[in-house]
Amino acid sequence: MNQKVKKEATLLVQGYEVVIGFxxxxxxxxxxxxxxxxxxxxxAEPNTQACAVDLAxxxxxxxxxxxxxxxxxRFGLAVGSHVAEESVFARKNYFxxxxxxxxxxxxxxxxxxxxxxxxxxxxxxxxxVRLVRAHLEEDAGKSLHEDFHGLSGIDLNRAGTPLLxxxxxxxxxxxxxxxxxxxxxxxxxxxxxxxxGNMQEGSFRxxxxxxxxxxxxxxxxxxxxxxxxxFKFMQQAIDFEIRWQIDRIEDGYEIEQATVLFDPDTGETRxxxxxxxxxxxRYFPDPDLPPLAIERSWVDEVKAAMxxxxxxxxERLVADYGLPEYDATTLTQSPAMASYFEEAAKTxxxxxxxxxxxxxxxxxxxxxxxxxxxxxxxxxxxxxxxVGRIADGTISNNAGxxxxxxxxxxxxxxxxxxxxxxxxxxxxxxGELEKIIEEVMAANAPMVEQFRAGKxxxxxxxxxxxxxxxxxxxxxxxxxxxxxxxxxxx
Length: 490
Description:
Blueprint: H1 3-14, E1 17-27, H2 66-78, E2 82-83, E3 86-87, E4 89-93, E5 103-107, E6 113-114, E7 117-122, E8 125-138, E9 142-144, E10 153-155, E11 162-168, H3 175-191, E12 204-213, E13 223-228, H4 231-250, E14 258-263, E15 268-274, E16 284-285, E17 292-293, H5 296-304, H6 310-321, H7 325-331, H8 335-348, H9 351-369, H10 380-391, H11 397-409, H12 415-421, H13 430-443, H14 445-452, H15 457-469, H16 476-489
Parallel strand pairs: 13-14
Antiparallel strand pairs: 1-11, 1-12, 2-6, 3-17, 4-5, 4-16, 6-8, 7-8, 8-11, 9-10, 12-13, 14-15
Helix pairs in contact: 3-4, 6-7, 8-9, 8-10, 10-11, 13-15, 13-16, 14-15, 15-16
């Protein structure tokens, strides 16, 4: 946690409690829209993927997309929710240029997914956020402002795209906790394959309802921060909103319920409109759609095809490989990373060392090159071989980085051949090592006397001289053991 957040947490403990609830729109990974056969592909020319059904032209009727329902069932199973045997679609009425029907088909009183929870770790502390519901609905179009001077354009390609709106109880108590929850939810929906999670393209959009109160007081008035499309901006927006609300209350003003937007250029939130309540939308059952009936056999079928979930896999990695909880949680950020770890760990028999390399050098290079884990150029088997050579003392960890760099750049794919070609083998000949140590001790007699007089820093200096004399090829562990024996003998 950074210093800014630590300071904020101290302020809130002293005076106010933060209360945050989340609404997340996960765009479902279906080929067609929720009530029509129109494509959901991203990046098409504006208004080329909105069909008559999406626009509710006279004479058209919506037809439920079965795969969208299957996605909802998968999510419900993943978070321990109740999947309703019967749920109802409603019309949410409001008027906005990018809403061609004048209403949005959603679910209100009886959603398809009810209850459930999302658990995650914030540092070493386990947190659990309860879910109220997750309901199916169609997306609206998109208003375009940047490319028009004094005007706005409307792109209806997104209209009718299937969404799963996931709503939490107001259980979150800090911006750091909010980001940790959002990351865990993002991991779940991508892990089970119902959403690609691309925040830049709008596939995973979060709204944060933020309020503050004195501990023990009723819930304060909330302001909803809309369309947070990065975890970095999410934390910045919530932190600003918390400070703004506290300052406002301290100055004697009341908080008014509102919908606000976050401006990343200024780092501030600004009011967009007065926040509506459910009554303002005049919900009523959609007359064109019958209740959605889900048979138990279908739920059982989906359950049987579910992958091992990330939290369950993390617990297994701790149990099977002896990993720390932190490592196991990090390695289960994606199925690709988890699979990569297991293959390398099983092949090498060095689970912790493999974990350190994946969380360290592998992740660092992925970030630098901006590529996904699925495209990692160093295969798990090659990493396993290299890690094995480090574990058996053939090469040092630093030499391992040179081998890894060569593998990453495609300079070769035979680990042992690269070690030979680069002359990276550690010196494991005890006789040769003893000779170097004796020469270093003779050339650095004052350091030897300092160590024998009780100055431990002199030992590290002597180790450095031995490593220099061996041109970095001496095994550091052997150097430490042999040098100490030689010094203590004298």
